[in-house]
Amino acid sequence: MTRFPGLPPAQGLYDPANEHDACGVGFVVNLHGRKSHQIVRQGLEVLENLTHRGACGCDPLTGDGAGILLQMPQEFFTAVTPQAGISLPAPGDWAVGNVFLPPSEEERESAEQFFERLCRDEGMEFLGWRTVPTDNRFIGGTAREV
Length: 146
Hints:
Elements: H1 37-49, H2 74-80, H3 105-121, H4 141-145
């Protein structure tokens, strides 16, 4: 068995063999755990200043998916999930994942069924799907092709 010092053991969907270094990371935090939009703005500023993480490439309109990690916005999800027919458990008893699905309805339904089955196989309760509003007007050519 391969050991990875300092990392937790493989469990559920986590496998330490998938860990790798990042080429650019910035942190903006409130040491007391206080949420604020200022922290989000500062996080976006850090992201913009890590030029290579903002995906300067052959197509300046196509990014590499770099983003920010923040606390779960409980109030936001409490407001939007009922519209998707989702009833949230108590704070801390649920999680959110972004899943990029195929545009074809048949492929999308198949992918959704696979994901829901995977969640159940891992002992999780799948709560539902919420379609996130998007604006594709500014997607670069490279991203649009794939």
